[in-house]
Amino acid sequence: ISPKSLLVIARVADRDGVSSAWRLIKGLSYSVAVGAEVANISLGSPGNVPALSDVIEWAQLNGTLVIAAAGNENRDMVYDPAGISKVLAVTGVDGADRKAVFSNFHGKIESCAPGTGLRSYGIGPNMVIWSGTSFAAPLVSGAVIECLRHLPAKMS
After folding, report:
1. DSSP label at 37?
2. pTM to 2 decimals?
3. 17: left (phi over 0), alpha (psi -120 to 50) or beta
4. Rounded to an integer, what distance in angstroms lies between the CA atom of residue 8 and that of residue 53?
5. Residue 57 burial by CB count (10 A; 0-12/13-18/19+): exposed, middle or buried?
6. What is the per-residue pLDDT across 10-67, written as a single tens digit (0 to 9) for each?
7. Buried b / exposed e along 25-53 (16+ C-beta atoms within 10 A)
8. N or C: which end of the chain has fewer CB within 10 A?
9. Model confidence over 64-84: pLDDT tens digits?
């Protein structure tokens, strides 16, 4: 999506995909501190973490847009951090550009991207097929950063 982008990798989950609010806050803080313009968060929780809202507001004040996955429960809700007001929430669509059967839906969702049948690496050298809003969110993140790259200098 944005091949000239420089990535900041802030791993916040273990190899099983499990994280904590504290690890997410530390990763986001690191990304902001090193100058990330966009922070993709491909995980979520149905619970609210007040400290996370504060860090996301701080990130925005420091020029970092946070984009996050809405969740994969086919429910009328958005998981946090996607549910936080300053976060761009992303859901997944299928190959026919319809809501993917698993994707959460809610009025808070502001964008969508392909979320089914995405080919990428799994554990080890093998390619696998993935589905989920966690795969749609980085597509939107890449598109946003590519758009930012093409803005006139005084607008970005």
Report:
1. S
2. 0.93
3. left
4. 21
5. middle
6. 999 998 889 999 999 999 999 999 999 999 999 999 888 889 999 999 999 999 999 9
7. bebbeebbeeebbbbbbbbbbeeebeebb
8. C
9. 999 999 999 999 999 999 999
